[in-house]
Amino acid sequence: MSTTTRRPPEPTSLTIADDARAVLERAREEGIATVWDRLRAQQPQCGYCSLGVSCTNCSMGPCRIDPFGEGPQRGVCGADADVIVARNFGRSIAAGASAHSDHGRDILEVFAATAEEETTGYEIRDEAKLHALATELGIATEERSALEIARDLADALQEDFGTRKDAISLLDRVPEVRRELWRQLAVTPRGIDRENVEMLHRTHMGVDNDYTNILLHGLRTSLADGWGGSLVATELSDVLFGIPQPVMSKVNLGVLDAAQVNIALHGHNPLLSDVIVQAAQDEELVAMATEVGATGINLVGLCCTGNELQMRKGVPMAGNHLMQELIIMTGALDAMVVDYQCIMPSVTDIAKCFHTEVISTADKARFPGATHISFDPHRGLEIGREIVRRGIVAYGNRNPDRVLLTAEPVEMMAGFSVEAILAALGGTPDPLVDAIASGKIRGAVGVVGCNNPKVIQDGGHVTLTRRLIENDILVLVTGCSAIANGKAGQMVPEAAEMAGEGLREVCQALGIPPVLHMGSCVDNTRIIVLAAALANHLGVDVSQLPLAGAAPEWYSEKAISIGAYVVASGISTVLGVQPPIFGSMNVVKLLAEDLDGVVGARFAVEPDPERAAVWIRRHLEEKRAGLGLPAHDLDTITAPAAAAAAASHV
Asked: pLDDT tens digits for 149-184?
């Protein structure tokens, strides 16, 4: 058990969530260190790193640039602040794009093996989507079996990861005017792996020393993620596991059940978690759970693996990124099954204080202190049963006196894929277009991204979302933001009462929430696909639409890649946590101003969600005016945001 020497801050200063606060109080009392304690122990954090002006790319360094020093400052190789900041930012994009694209590759490889009938527990569950994807890529479907079509589709998409093409496969979804812009800028993504490798090459010492050129390739690298690797992950997950449809579920730590075997599925890849859901329904395993005194087997989700299960199967969601340590500290979790991405190494340390068994499953993601069961899709169901069995055994070691469950679960609605949204609209985007044109809906914003312990947990997501829907702005959420908004009660049809008059009317007519759950973090592709579909429907570019993106609490390199491909696709994006670029005001100016004249969108940084809401509102009204749509007075805002606007220069 790890301890702290100083009493940590009050839980109310760390999170807005009551379930998290209750467990944090236990951590204070028992001296168990959490992510917030480790952040506090790191203070003060390195200023050079925070500004992006430290470089470790070669052994002549490490180097650092003092942005406030006198005279020209350069590293040993001669790189100035602009080059060092651009190199670091570009490498972060490549790392984030690699993470999402490797996820896509894993899905693709299992899809290909399923097409060859070499897996257990997997099948083509949505043949209509399989046919649609095949047709989009020019693959014949008439008088052919689903497996034959799947084999050809797998071959075609595997080519997108290579270096032999001029453009990846699914770019025809993008408006032609945007694709022509990418051609002119030489940022059309050619191959998913190719762009990541080239970014690492460009940022090696002695290669690309023009910060603008580096950052333009950063856009290309991110586009290979958004319109390539991540999109492959989303589309093939739909084929294998089914297209998400609206489903009621529950969220927060209250979804744990003291009477059942509780198994949390944590990470980002749905391949393993899907077969565990099947295994948990096995009559033999259910009987085994009963024999050890449990009333059943209760699966709950964490982070994006949880989102994948929730939107397809209604599996309840226990929490987002900053809840992963706290769920173990409830004393009610018997097993935490992890795959990869956003899993803190600390979970095995926390588990030592309780009976929870942490089970790692990805050979590329090992965790010292965890039980490792290597996942093999060829034995998917067998491995799923073994993992569930271990969770049942762990239940027998639970100490009932250590169980701390204080929260009542909150209902939420998930599962708004692009197909589900269009179905709710009657099969055509016309009702949404009409609502936007009339002003009932002022625009739409994707509020996405992670939790960051530097920001009060969930506060950025929930506050920003609340201010937007109050102003008749439809909000689309993914990842940790979806979970935060679900816990806040903003993702049920009844939440339409929180919205402005126009958005409320539309939501009540359709029976939907004003905040739509569009999936996991790779599923931000659903947002840009929907945006592109609307632009194509109207015959305009994406950058002309009243749309915006926001990541109020981001922390991950994946979020940097997401933000870059959203901006490169024509949607301006507000970041709530300062990226490490402020050591170069030239890079800041390029990303926050000049990009608008290049790709029609830009980044903004605003830590205050109240002020971010005002920035977004004004941005949407400017886009509406550009389309000749009725626009509100830019100075007219809802009362809760008025004070923030008065104090803001954004």
From this structure: 999 999 999 999 987 899 999 999 999 999 999 999
> How far, rounded to the nearest angstrom, does the alpha carbon of residue 543 sit from its chain's CA centroid?
22
Q: Give the other-Cβ count within 10 Å of 18's Cβ.
A: 16
Report strand pairing: 357-360 vs 443-447: unpaired
- Count other C-beta atoms under 10 Å from residue 459's C-beta: 20
- Which residues partner with 299 through β-bridges? 263
118, 246 contact by CB (below 8 A)? no
| Rounded Cα distance, 589 and 552, in Å | 21
- How many Cα atoms within 13 Å fall on the side-chain side of residue 213? 8
| pTM check: above 0.85 | yes
Quote the tokens at residue 293: 């005194």
Residues 6+ positions from 464 with CB-CB distance below 8 Å: 447, 550, 552, 576, 609, 612, 613
Cα–Cα nearest to 4, from 32, 26, 39: 32
Q: In CATH terms, are 81-241 and 253-402 the same topology?
A: no
**Residue 597 is encoded by which pair of tokens?**
């004249």
Domains in the chain: boundaries: 81-241, 253-402, 411-647
Other beta carbons within 10 Å of 150: 25
Both tokens of 9, joined, read 């801050």
Looking at 146-206, list the stretches that DSSP marks H as alpha helix, in order from N- to C-terminal side. 146-159, 176-185, 192-202
User: 411-647: what CATH class?
Assistant: alpha beta
- The sign of the CA dihedral 100, 101, 104, 106 is negative
Is 81-241 assigned to CATH 1.20.1270.30?
yes
Does the domain at residues 253-402 carry the CATH identifier 3.40.50.2030? yes
- 642, burial (CB in 10 Å: exposed 0-12, middle 13-18, buried 19+): middle
* Contact present, 297 and 391 (Cβ < 8 Å): yes
The DSSP secondary-structure symbol of 408 reads P
Rounded Cα distance between 541 and 531, Å, is 9
Burial class (CB in 10 A: 0-12, 13-18, 19+), 372: middle
Contact present, 195 and 217 (Cβ < 8 Å): yes
> pLDDT tens digit string along 229-238?
999 999 999 9
Residues 184, 57 contacting (CB under 8 angstroms): no
Q: How far apart are CA 201 and CA 206, in angstroms?
A: 10
Q: Are strands 247-251 and 410-414 parallel, antiparallel or unpaired?
A: antiparallel
Nearest to 104 by CA among 240, 237, 269, 229: 229
Distance, in Å, from the CA atom of 226 to the CA atom of 215, rounded to the nearest integer, reads 16
Q: Long-range CB contacts (< 8 A, 24+ apart) of 60-63?
A: 60/205
Q: Return the half-sphere exposure (C-beta side, CA atoms, 13 A cut-off) of residue 616.
A: 38
pLDDT tens sequence across 549-571 = 999 999 999 999 999 999 999 99
Q: Centre a 10 Å sphere on the Cβ of residue 622 and count the other Cβ atoms it contains.
A: 12
Q: Is residue 180 a contact partner of residue 541, using CB atoms and an 8 Å limit?
A: no
Q: Which two tokens stand for residue 563?
A: 């933000």
